[in-house]
Automatic annotation (TrEMBL):
UniProt EC number: 2.7.7.87
InterPro entries per the UniProt record, alphabetical: DHBP_synth_RibB-like_a/b_dom (IPR017945), Sua5-like_dom (IPR006070), Sua5/YwlC_C (IPR038385), Sua5_C (IPR005145), T(6)A37_SUA5 (IPR010923), TC-AMP_synthase_SUA5 (IPR050156)
Top enzyme category: transferase
Cell location: Cytoplasm
Native organism: Enterococcus mundtii
Keywords from the named record: ATP-binding, Cytoplasm, Nucleotide-binding, Nucleotidyltransferase, Transferase, tRNA processing
Record-linked PANTHER family: SUA5, THREONYLCARBAMOYL-AMP SYNTHASE
Protein name in the entry: Threonylcarbamoyl-AMP synthase
SUPFAM superfamilies assigned: YrdC/RibB
Family, similarity comment: Belongs to the SUA5 family.
Reaction(s) this enzyme catalyzes, per UniProt: L-threonine + hydrogencarbonate + ATP = L-threonylcarbamoyladenylate + diphosphate + H2O
Amino acid sequence: METIKYDETQLNEAAKELAVGNLVAFPTETVYGLGANVLLPEAVKQVFTVKGRPQDNPLIVHVASFEQVKEYVDNFHPLTEQIVKNFWPGPLTLIFHIKKGSLPGIVTGGLSTAAFRMPDNKKTLELIQLAGVPLVGPSANTSGKPSPTTADHVFHDLKGKITGIIDDGATRIGVESTVLDLSDPSAPPMILRPGAITKEQLEVVIESPVATDRHLVKESETPKSPGMKYKHYSPDTRVLMVEKTDWPEAIIWTKEQKLRTGVLAGPTIADQVRKDVAAVYMYYDDSVEAATKGLFAGLRGLDDDRLALDLILVQVAPEEGLGIAYMNRLKKAAGQNYYKK
């Protein structure tokens, strides 16, 4: 199969492919998604096949309006309208209890709930409207590997396996959406996966507490949301997290162990260690925004076979605000492992 890169003049063509059950990757403000018609189980099954993704892992349903959600949900949490008004379109996924039989079981992972999102990307919103149905849209990559933040990342993983990719350059945020569980109308909203929309931002809008689920789902468990597995987003090369004060010692250790090492960090750390390692992928500045945007691209870049690295060392960030989302992805990429001599 030839995989086509669609531009903005070819959205109607891409929508027609989706309508008949073919797969098309699309851009969002977070990462690129792998699109399939949500109402065609065979098309959705192909998403799992080409990604190599377990079918117990539920998919996020991407919509172009809140009205589309109402076709599948009839019992909303009382805070839903307020949350949607303030954060859609945007990097926030909402989980609702759905009408029985309204979505194929392969979409929901066999659960009675489903996740919905309205992405903040004009091309993709137009694509969904043209297709006439919502689209499933897990990250458009090989399952378990760093998520794609450019069309080239998608092409690297899925060329020859999907019909096309809508190219819209690099994504703006760089990590997947916040997932908020609203499936129990009588319970407080709960964050299942951190993202660019923070607990604090949500609490300001709804003027009440938001809970956080810090449970790491084991391989034998069915997650309620994507991205809850203990290890995820992992390159083939071993990854270790490094605390700010441990960098000098970590670099000495890699030399003693004769490890060919890459470093993923902001300019301050990158400039300090550059002469002592095999490769550096540098964030555009030292901010957590830059780290979040560059994390997956950096992991992919340093995992290139041509570099033949034994180890990737990555800087950590304070676990507050956007740093919670950054560290959530980094910890899973590193299998929760820090540098410790």
